[in-house]
Write a structure and sequence with these properties.
Elements: H1 7-34, H2 37-42, H3 44-83, H4 99-115, H5 119-139
Helix pairs in contact: 1-3, 1-5, 3-4, 4-5
Length: 153
């Protein structure tokens, strides 16, 4: 029975658990080094919830934000094309490139309020998490390819 199921969801769940554990360990170690051992020990459940939210929910939210930015940018691009000749360059949709910035800001707010650390340490934790997420999503593209459909041109 176990071998009759589709392997794609099982592989995704395994990668999701592995990525959550990696992000949890990174956040835990950074909070341990920046704040204190007691803060990291007291907030380990919130750090685990934060790691799960970052790995699973943040790409879905960023996909929705990217879709909205793409629609707004597409409308602005068409307006620019209507004003100017499209063969001379016309408009370009650069608004979609704001999605990583919005993702960092969402990550910063999540770190600040879920772990309850000061803003200066939350910035460093969020930057390190963002770097780890880029590495994870580069090495394990199955974590985000099921939702990521907007690729900047």
């Amino acid at each position: 029975m176990l071998f009759n199921i589709d392997a794609e969801p099982v592989v995704f769940i395994i990668w999701l658990i592995l990525a959550t554990i990696i992000v949890f360990l990174v956040i835990y170690i950074v909070v341990l080094l920046l704040e204190s051992k007691t803060k990291a020990s007291d907030k380990w459940v919130m750090i685990l919830i934060l790691a799960f939210l970052i790995v699973l929910v943040l790409p879905i939210v960023l996909n929705a934000v990217t879709g909205v930015l793409d629609a707004i940018g597409g409308a602005l691009e068409e307006t620019r094309d209507a004003i100017d000749d499209p063969t001379n360059g016309g408009g370009h949709n650069y608004l979609i490139l704001l999605a990583p910035v919005i993702g960092f800001l969402i990550l910063l707010v999540l770190v600040k309020f879920l772990i309850d650390i000061p803003w200066d340490n939350a910035v460093w934790v969020a930057l390190l998490i963002l770097f780890v997420l880029y590495v994870l999503f580069t090495l394990i593209p199955e974590l985000y390819t099921f939702i990521y459909e907007y690729v900047p041109e």
